[in-house]
Amino acid sequence: MSISILVFGSNTFLTTLPDQISCSDAFSVEVITNVNQAVSRIQTTPPDIILVQASLDGSMELCGWLKDQTKLSWIYCIMFEDRPQQLTQRGKYGLHRELEMTAAALRQGADAYIWQLPEQTLAELSANHQLILSQLTVGLRKAQKYRDLLRTNDLLSAIALSDTLTELNNRRALEWDLPRQIQKARTQEIPLSLIMLDVDYFKNVNDTYGHLVGDRLLQLLCTRMRHNLRFQDTPFRYGGEEFVVILGKTTADEALIVARRLNRLVSEQPFAINNKLAIDITISLGTASLVAADDERGESLLNRADQCLLQAKAAGRNRVIGCEYLSPISHGKNVSSHSTESSVALSTDS
Questions:
Q1: Handedness of CA 79, 82, 84, 87 (dihedral sign)
Q2: Closest Cα partner for 295 from 171, 169, 183, 172?
Q3: What is the pLDDT of residue 105?
Q4: Cβ proximity of 247 and 233 under 8 Å
Q5: What phi and psi, each to the nearest 5 degrees, are found at residue 48?
Q6: Residue ending a domain, choose from 141, 160, 179
Q7: I need a labelling partner for 185 at 20 to 30 A (CA). Which of 120, 136, 167, 278 fits?
Q8: Alpha helices, H only, the chain
């Protein structure tokens, strides 16, 4: 793993560090001398380790700021003490003063505190470099643990938001993602629609062939859906044999086109369960598009699509019914079409 190091210090300070830092492929090193630039860099692309030259203006402020950033607490910060006054006090007052200053630096936000003496014997320089490399090893371990934790959290999140049978996102994922999609649509002033669909007479499949065949049928259906949706469309298993598809950047008319296409793709070819069994199914679909009056969580949007789905099932199934609101004060207009019809029939139902 390549470890990212931000050096808040001068180029002269960089030359005092072990050669392994600047010459090894294991480290990616960036040098910054301005505290505001350092803060901006940390916020946009957090490094794994920060090396801070104490004599540089803003060094204490940078450590203090970093300590207050809860989300950046994993960054390992090493303070290098090279200020002449502190070095003089260390030499004058000995170990007691050294411990006091080390404790103060750690309170200010440093994870480690290393003295940079101006004159050192080769043995002292070697020992100092060994100490620096040891602290880098500690920082590397901390960064690795953080990355492992992120991967674990990502895995747990994926498990929590995924439907194990169909491998689609589940209802919990929909409840998390739909408000985000609504906020994005409103902020960017782009359309947003969704489809709610249901497998027609799915209970008959379970009753006739058993639940294992029913499960396999749902898996095949979801695979067919995934392969025939656009890149901006996100399918979710809402529950049982019911599904929701969020249609990004999609108007009400476009949603009807997508829904009719799904309807046709499901009904026109049987689903091969195995070499001996293929099952014909159809789906009913309801569509709805985001309007200004919809709540931020998307409950009203989902409800309209659900009502259209119920109308599609009541009208005989295997069809699409879309609900489009032209304005907040106008009556709703339902646009319905059977999957096999080329014309569009208008209904006065809302």
A1: positive
A2: 183
A3: 83
A4: yes
A5: -80, -35
A6: 160
A7: 167
A8: 11-15, 19-23, 35-44, 59-68, 84-93, 95-108, 122-160, 171-188, 202-209, 211-228, 252-267, 299-314
Domain hosting 26: range is 3-160
- Nearest in space to 285 (alpha carbons), one of 203, 195, 174, 211: 195
Q: Both 227 and 273 in a single domain? A: yes
Question: Which residues pair with residue 233 across a beta bridge?
Answer: 247
Residues in the chain: 350
Taking only the tens place, the pLDDT of each residue in 184-210 is 999 999 999 999 999 999 999 999 999
Three-state secondary structure of 213-253: HHHHHHHHHHHHHHHHCCCCEEEEEEECCEEEEEEECCCHH
Q: What is the pLDDT along the chain (350 residues), one digit of tens a residue?
A: 578 999 999 988 988 888 888 776 778 899 999 999 999 999 989 999 999 999 999 998 999 898 888 888 889 999 999 998 888 888 787 777 788 888 888 888 888 999 888 877 888 888 889 999 899 888 888 888 887 877 777 777 777 889 989 999 999 999 999 999 999 999 999 999 999 999 999 999 999 999 999 999 999 999 999 999 998 999 999 999 999 999 999 999 999 999 999 999 999 999 999 999 999 999 999 999 999 999 999 999 999 999 999 999 999 999 999 986 433 323 334 444 433 332 233 333 33
What span, in angstroms and rounded, lies between the C-alpha atoms of 254 and 78? 57
Contact 326, 337 (CB under 8 A): no
Asked, for residue 165, whether it belongs to a domain, the answer is no
User: How many independent structural domains does the chain possess?
Assistant: 2
The answer on 279 and 132 residing in a single domain is: no
- Annotated catalytic residues are 241
Residue 142 is encoded by which pair of tokens?
């901390």
Q: What are phi and psi of 240, to 5 degrees?
A: 55, -125
Q: Both 224 and 154 in a single domain?
A: no
Same domain, 341 and 194: yes
| 198/312 same-domain check | yes
Q: What angle do the packed helices 59-68 and 95-108 form, to 10 degrees? A: 50
User: Which residue reads 């947003």 in tokens?
Assistant: 192
